[in-house]
């Protein structure tokens, strides 16, 4: 996508000049990557205006890493997402802590639009991969979640964390229509990176992977996008339907408390946290494209162009489930009487060379405080009766517990690893 980089805020070169003048930055040790000494504070006041060389709009482009909750959960959806799953290979808890510290420092730096700073020795590889020089922070967020296997792997309590397992953390049970690829499921840690610039997002995920060398290995990496559009419209999925409309029902602080943020009965480290559910759902575009508009609309119980539910005029008008087809996707969701916060992205992945069919679909991501009560009944009901099943196949799955937000100076997962 062609974007006017200048319009987007401070470039990384400018950022480096600024961070140098503030005495901050990241220095890299002889290993080239691992010894990150300082992270630039992402919440440092932006030095903007005359003489600074910094675009005043820069501040708008940064989403701080720090806060009561992790960013990237109820943050308005950025255009691009990478989702990576890691298996932790670290020998002991101390090594896990070192990894999470490094990741946190880099996440802070990336959210601020910075680069890792090399020690100036041309005989060593550059510390940073460099593809975001001149690019702004682009509203980058990095969101971390822990899978069940971090706590207990094949009955082994590798890092002494088993007693801190969150209340609802377990792999999503196998569903009757699942066609899951085990290589694309689960993981010890999941990192969701979102940004308004795909290269900025990729740079972050790539450097999370680099920083993990020796302590973790990537299991899988997914990339997604949503339709841009001006004026905050609901993005359309690859079936051409507005997808995310019902989030409006809970998008208030009180709504987030009742739908998203983990509650009583959870270990302390989950305070302000949530559960991230992931399903990779392949959408059978060729079958869909041959179906009539009436069949397409009956599948959801909403009109394609306006997004309005059957019997209604506007996208956000209240849904009357009795007016929707029995097996329609929205009617089934309503039958469960539950809300979840969806934050999905479309994906495309070339064509299947055997059939010539396009590989594409939805990286379904949802956040909820209690996946057992909110998500699983919905998933079960949909798998047994959803009209959408004719056009969609679930091929990957994961559930991760996302700790609460971070205070400056602390690292992601600290309250889990040091309590
Ligand atoms: C189990 C959870 C869900 C999965 C998996 C899922 C897959 C999926 N959904 C669409 C497209 C749409 N979904 C819509 C609404 C909707 N979907 C879920 C849950 C899952 N979807 C919920 C809870 C809701 C909201 C229902 C409500 O309360 O009104 C819609 C309608 C517009 C909207 O509200 O977003 C569309 C369109 C696809 C294509 C898909 C898998 C491929
Ligand atoms: Fe849906």
TrEMBL record:
Domain of life: Bacteria
Cofactors named for this entry: heme b
UniProt name for this protein: Deferrochelatase
UniProt domain Dyp-type peroxidase N-terminal: residue ranges: 70-225
Keywords recorded for this protein, A-Z: Heme, Iron, Lyase, Metal-binding, Oxidoreductase, Peroxidase, Signal
Function: Involved in the recovery of exogenous heme iron. Extracts iron from heme while preserving the protoporphyrin ring intact.
InterPro entries hit by this protein: Dimeric_a/b-barrel, Dyp_perox_C, Dyp_perox_N, Dyp_peroxidase, EfeB/EfeN, TAT_signal, TAT_signal_bac_arc
Domain Dyp-type peroxidase C-terminal: 234-405
Catalytic activity, reaction form: heme b + 2 H(+) = protoporphyrin IX + Fe(2+)
Cofactor note: Binds 1 heme b (iron(II)-protoporphyrin IX) group non-covalently per subunit.
The organism of origin for this protein: Cohnella cellulosilytica
Pfam families assigned to the protein according to its UniProt record, in alphabetical order: Dyp_perox_C, Dyp_perox_N
EC numbers for this chain: 1.11.1.-
Subcellular location as annotated: Cell envelope
Coiled-coil spans in chain: none
Protein family membership: Belongs to the DyP-type peroxidase family.
């Amino acid at each position: 996508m062609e974007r006017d980089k200048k319009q987007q805020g401070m470039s990384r070169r400018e950022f480096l000049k600024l961070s140098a003048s503030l005495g901050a930055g990241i220095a890299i040790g002889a290993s080239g990557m691992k010894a990150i000494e300082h992270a630039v504070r992402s919440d440092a006041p932006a030095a903007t205006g005359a003489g600074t060389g910094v675009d005043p709009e820069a501040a708008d482009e940064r989403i701080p890493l720090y806060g009561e909750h992790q960013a990237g959960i109820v943050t308005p959806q950025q255009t691009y997402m990478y989702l990576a799953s890691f298996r932790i290979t670290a020998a002991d808890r101390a090594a896990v802590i070192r990894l999470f510290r490094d990741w946190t420092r880099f996440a802070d730096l990336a959210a601020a639009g910075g680069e890792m700073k090399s020690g100036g020795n041309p005989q060593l590889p550059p510390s940073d991969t460099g593809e975001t020089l001149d690019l702004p922070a682009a509203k980058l967020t990095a969101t971390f979640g822990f899978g069940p296997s971090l706590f207990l792997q094949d009955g082994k309590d590798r890092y002494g964390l088993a007693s801190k397992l969150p209340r609802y953390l377990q792999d999503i049970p196998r569903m009757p229509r699942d066609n899951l690829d085990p290589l694309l499921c689960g993981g010890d840690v999941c990192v969701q990176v979102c940004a308004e610039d795909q290269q900025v997002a990729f740079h972050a995920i790539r450097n999370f992977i680099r920083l993990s060398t020796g302590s973790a290995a990537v299991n899988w990496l997914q990339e997604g996008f949503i339709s841009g559009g001006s004026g905050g419209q609901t993005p359309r999925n690859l079936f051409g339907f507005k997808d995310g409309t019902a989030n409006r029902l809970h998008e208030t602080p009180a709504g987030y408390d009742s739908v998203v943020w983990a509650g009583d009965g959870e270990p302390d480290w989950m305070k302000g946290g949530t559960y991230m559910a992931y399903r990779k759902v392949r959408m059978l575009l060729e079958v869909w494209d041959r179906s009539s508009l009436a069949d397409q609309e009956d599948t959801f119980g909403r009109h394609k162009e306006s997004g309005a539910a059957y019997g209604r005029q506007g996208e956000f008008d209240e849904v009357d489930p009795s007016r929707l087809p029995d097996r329609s996707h929205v009617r089934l969701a309503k039958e469960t009487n539950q809300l979840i916060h969806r934050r999905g992205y479309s994906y495309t992945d070339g064509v299947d060379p055997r059939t010539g069919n396009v590989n594409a679909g939805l990286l379904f991501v949802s956040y909820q405080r209690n996946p057992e009560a909110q998500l699983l009944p919905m998933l079960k009901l949909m798998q047994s009766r959803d009209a959408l099943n004719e056009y969609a196949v679930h091929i990957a799955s994961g559930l991760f517990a996302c700790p609460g937000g971070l205070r400056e100076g602390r690292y992601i997962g600290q309250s889990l690893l040091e309590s």
